[in-house]
Write a structure and sequence with these properties.
Helices cover about 40% and strands about 20% of the residues. With about 260 residues, the protein is of the alpha+beta class.
């Protein structure tokens, strides 16, 4: 309840000279159309003892209370905002994961213990001789498989690595090649050993070894009896290496979000 006297226009003009906090309000009160001020004045007379006191109160006519519907809509908007924010964070984490995975392809990680990097892959060279089946089992136990040369570049990388290491040079090695009867295939991937199926592999055996020719000082394929004992080359399974990389990156992202 406010007790006051309504100022005249002259008084309002005088008040506007003092640029206090109410200046803008008073300017609007004078310059804006009257229909924008819909406040109604309620005047009541109160009798106290032998005196009559006039009380006036400004009652806003268009003021509306916040309803339950308004509160419900606000809560729904807030929930939608939180969901969008959560999805955005998940998307950013996914982008970080993809970025880390791609970058790790350019900056190769060190090979596991007992493996040596040659080119893009990791390989293990045995010191002892085993038959073809036992060699494959030993490779799987180390998270790999008998080497498979899927590209000419991979073949060249491994042979160059062997030739540059006096410990490996001159030895014969089992590979993952196998001849079930029709053609030579890689046992792990079932891909043909040679893209040109007309090319032949010398030797009568059904298991493929990488053999060193002392005369030409070159390595080539040769079919060997699977029960004969040779050293072997393991190739780290790419799927295992990629899965481990993704798992490590995902674990880092989870730790950061926590």
């Amino acid at each position: 309840i406010i007790l006051f006297a309504v100022p005249s226009s002259a008084n309002l003009t005088a008040i506007m000279v003092n640029h206090g906090p109410w200046t803008e309000i008073l300017e609007n009160w004078i310059t804006l159309p009257r229909h924008q001020f819909n406040n109604s004045r309620v005047i009541r007379a109160m009798k106290i003892d032998d005196k009559i006191l006039t009380v006036s109160k400004i009652s806003p006519s268009n003021k509306r209370d916040v309803s339950e519907t308004d509160l419900y809509l606000l809560s729904m908007i807030y929930k939608i905002f939180k969901k969008i924010q959560k999805k955005k964070n998940q998307f950013n984490n996914f982008n970080s994961l993809i970025y880390s995975f791609i970058m790790s392809s350019f900056f190769l990680e060190p090979c596991p213990t007992n493996y040596t990097r040659m080119g893009q892959n990791c390989y293990h060279f045995s010191n002892r001789d085993f038959d073809w089946k036992s060699s494959g089992s030993l490779c799987r136990g180390m998270g790999g498989h008998l080497v498979e040369f899927n590209t000419v570049e991979e073949n060249q990388d491994v042979i160059a690595g062997i030739m540059s290491n006096s410990k490996f040079k001159g030895n014969n090695f089992w590979t993952g090649g196998l001849n079930p009867g029709l053609l030579w295939i890689w046992a792990n991937s079932a891909r043909p050993v040679q893209q040109d199926t007309k090319q032949t592999v010398i030797g009568d055996g059904r298991c493929l070894k990488l053999t060193f020719n002392a005369s030409s000082k070159l390595y080539s394929y040769r079919g060997e009896d699977c029960s004969s004992r040779q050293k072997y080359i393991c190739e780290l399974t790419i799927e295992d290496e990629s899965a481990n990389r993704i798992e490590r990156t995902a674990r880092l992202l989870i730790d950061k979000s926590d």
